[in-house]
Automatic annotation (TrEMBL):
It comes from Paenibacillus chartarius. The keyword Transport applies. It is a multi-pass membrane protein. The chain crosses the membrane at residues 12-34, 54-72, 84-108, 128-149, 161-185, 237-261, 281-299, 311-332, 344-361. This is MATE family efflux transporter. It is found in: Cell membrane. The keyword Membrane applies.
């Protein structure tokens, strides 16, 4: 396969989308299986997942920053630098993951109390957090290796590995929950071990592929390599990504709390909407991530004008697909929501939100497409500053004012979310049209005296 075809939007997008979609389906199956243990088990996994998603940001920010530089260096035909950046990014990500594994394993009790988990669920939560938390290092390794592999243009192999890992996880869950092959039913403890073991196997598979993704192949002795200049460049891109990702994560938690203040029906409607909206999000995010990889390669190779036009190509393709999907959800929304609940009030709330969703998803697509384009050229501070301010003031502030204070309910909260996405989309759009990245070097020259050393 020639490099141009390998780096086309279609070849980059479909494996990312399929990976996310299969994980979504298997995650749903996972939840349904755990529900056979008890509602308490589902609640513990749901609350704990919020914690794991939040700490995941700490090492994924480094992995994402390294991934951008890998794509740029490969585009500039400097594969040795791309190789070194991938090694340093993986070392830091895995180091953070290992530290988190120790903290969560030894401090599961205090962490469970910090999450305000109800007293009766504390023992279950401590066990689950201790076991799954101890495997965060495997999650960090998967993220670092998978991101590096994708930014070489190979988005299919991580898809296959993720699929295999999730299938193994569901099979292990079946054994743990129902008992099979002479193994007794282990309940939530077995599910926790199933999660950790499947992540260990996934990390091992990713490592095997990662070591062959660069030329020459990565050897164990290469883990000692270090370059101060390139490491600082990785951190320069990574920390704004981490702040932006954290802001999104925590503002979503706050908004979810506002929805809970409205009542159980509103909370249920919002939860079901999250599930239904996820398909739109997966389409948009897959195209935006593929665009980010392609733009980073083009930028690194010096094809800046082509990189500039590609961002709009990604945006328009994404808008078309996302809008069609949002319209289909609206057209058949009452039937789709009825699969989850027979409560007429919740169905009515969900259908009304699907109408508003026709506005939310397109503005979100614009924000993702252009925001990821800025990230691809290394401009991560501007989206961080504008995004953090907008998410906390517009998304959170207006959600409370419109939804709670003025009594608009879910409609008010969705209106605030649309306004936030629209504002951020406009701001990153203006930034991209300014073509500031055209005036910077795609890949900086190595600093005088800069050498690779062993750590």
């Amino acid at each position: 396969m020639n490099n141009e075809r390998k780096m086309s939007l279609w070849m980059l997008t479909w494996p990312v989308f399929l990976e996310m979609f299969l994980q979504f389906l298997l995650g749903t199956a996972d939840t349904l299986m755990v529900s056979h243990i008890s509602d308490d088990a589902v609640a513990v996994i749901g609350i704990s997942s919020q914690l794991f998603n939040a700490v995941n940001i700490l090492f994924m920010a480094i992995a994402s920053g390294a991934g951008i530089l890998i794509a740029q260096r490969l585009g500039a035909r400097r594969p040795q630098e791309a190789r070194l950046i991938s090694i340093m990014g993986a070392k830091v990500s895995i180091g953070i993951g290992l530290a988190l594994s120790i903290v969560l394993n030894l401090g599961a009790g205090p962490v469970a109390k910090l999450l305000q988990i109800p007293g009766p669920l504390q023992p279950l939560a401590e066990t689950y957090i201790s076991i799954v938390g101890s495997g965060m290092v495997f999650m960090a390794a998967m993220g670092a290796f998978g991101t590096a592999i994708r930014n070489t243009g190979d988005t299919r192999t991580p898809m296959y590995i993720a699929l295999g890992m999730n299938v193994i996880h569901v099979l292990f869950n079946y054994v743990a929950i129902f008992g099979a092959f002479g193994i007794p039913a282990l309940g939530l403890t077995g599910v926790a071990w199933s999660t950790t073991i499947s992540r260990l196997l996934g990390a091992a598979a990713m490592l095997a592929v990662y070591r062959r993704s660069f030329s020459p192949g990565i050897q164990w002795r290469d883990w000692r390599l270090y370059d101060r200049t390139m490491f600082r460049e990785t951190l320069r891109i990574s920390w704004p990504l981490g702040v932006n990702m954290s802001a999104w994560c925590f503002t979503q938690l706050v908004i979810f709390a506002f929805v809970a203040m409205l009542g159980s029906k509103e909370l249920s409607a919002r939860t079901y909407m999250n599930t239904m909206e996820s398909f739109c999000f997966m389409i948009g995010f897959s195209i935006a991530l593929a665009g980010q990889i392609r733009i980073a390669h083009l930028f690194g190779s010096g094809e800046k004008e082509k990189a500039y036009r590609t961002a709009y190509q990604v945006m328009w393709i994404g808008l078309g697909l996302v809008f069609v999907n949002a319209f289909l959800l609206y057209a058949f929304g009452d039937k789709a929501i009825s699969l989850f609940t027979k409560d007429g009030d919740i169905v009515a709330l969900g259908v009304s939100l699907l109408a508003v969703n026709l506005l939310l998803q397109p503005v979100k697509m614009v924000n993702m497409a252009i925001g990821n384009a800025l990230t691809a050229v290394g401009d991560t501070r501007f989206p961080m500053i504008t995004g953090t301010i907008s998410m906390w003031t517009v998304a959170v502030g207006c959600s409370y004012y419109l939804g709670i204070q003025l009594g608009w309910g879910l409609l008010g909260i969705y209106t605030a979310m649309i306004a936030d996405e629209f504002l951020r989309g406009v701001l990153v759009g203006i930034r991209w049209r300014s073509r500031r990245f055209m005036r910077t070097d795609a890949v900086p020259a190595a600093a005088p005296g800069s050498t690779m050393t062993t750590a």
